[in-house]
Amino acid sequence: MSSTLLDLRRADASLDYLERAREITPMLAAAADEIEERRELPERVVEALIERGFFRMLLPRSLGGAELDPLTYVQVLEEIAKADPSTAWCLGQNSGCSMTAPYLDPAVAREIFGPPRGILAWGPELPGAGRGVAVEGGIRVTGRWGFATGSRHATWLGAHVPIFEPDGTPRLNPNGRPFVPTVLFPKSSAEIIDNWQVIGLRGTGSDSYRATTSSSRRNTPCRATRPSGAMGAAGMIYAASFSNVSLGIRPRRARRLHGASSSTRRQTRWRRELDSNFRFRARFGSVFVVSLLGLRFVAEARRRAAACIEVSFYRCGR
Question: pTM score, two decimals?
Fold first, then answer.
């Protein structure tokens, strides 16, 4: 395939997903207050996202994914964040989790990500959150994890756990560091703990979860040992995802958070108190300026990355 044809296909996919994002934003904006109040994405919103392929942006084409290039992907998140930041944040987390797909046995990958509702969520790796003990045929995992963004609409969960031998000896990698794989299991085998009581990004439903499960074909441990194509390590995708969600949130969301007057919304007591607190307003102003500078940095970094990619494609074409 010529580089020109490849570039044209990439351009078509980029425009298609950006158009899908712009098409769905009125629906998300209308549902934004409900999303924050319920602390989750309503079913109609989840179905709309599934129908438009937003949960499959980073999945391989062999699994029905888009294999979207990273710059288009983060632009899609920015567009969606303009309408509802919680929805964009969920997509960023669920998409990062989906990057485990290339490292799974193909049959396991199809089982998890093949169905339309094949959505994976997990919380961060935290010391002492869980552990895995080697047993015959696999490992037995026990623990409690937090901050599982997007877990309310997911069908699978994951956990990052250090592995111990039956005698309690930690299993190590060749470099001498602890072996910490990611274990995947159906959400139905876990207990979701409803503890996401916050004042911002409430709609992400980033609850905690508890599970005791044994590994098998259905939850084979997976661990990325090399970058996945053009996307690189999943950790970098999380950073790119959430920084570009911040670009979409924009200053109007910050003003709304600190309780700016509105003729159509009744201010709550805490918003009125913060609005009249001089120290808070002064501190908020300084943070607001710093955040604008941060957003400007992210936008400039994205512009430079786009320029570098264009140069790389040009040189490869030659």
Answer: 0.79
Residue 229 covered by a domain: no
Torsion over CA: 305, 310, 313, 315 (sign): negative
The answer as to whether 151 is a domain residue is yes
Residue 205, exposed/middle/buried by CB under 10 A (0-12, 13-18, 19+)? Answer: buried
Single-letter residue type at 222: C
Residues sharing a CB contact under 8 Å with residue 178, sequence separation 6 or more, in sequence order:
162, 163, 170, 171, 172
User: 């996401």: which residue's tokens?
Assistant: 196
- List pLDDT tens digits, range 192-232: 999 999 988 999 999 999 998 876 544 455 443 333 333 34
Q: Do residues 21 and 68 both lie within one domain?
A: yes
Q: In terms of DSSP H, where are the helices of the chain?
A: 3-38, 43-51, 70-83, 85-98, 106-113, 234-257, 269-275, 278-317
Please indicate, yes or no, whether residues 99 and 9 belong to a single structural domain of this protein.
Answer: yes
Question: What pLDDT digit, counting tens, does each position of 104-143 carry?
Answer: 889 999 999 999 999 999 998 888 899 999 988 788 999 9
Is residue 152 located within the same domain as residue 72? no
Output the domain CATH number for residue 11.
1.10.540.10
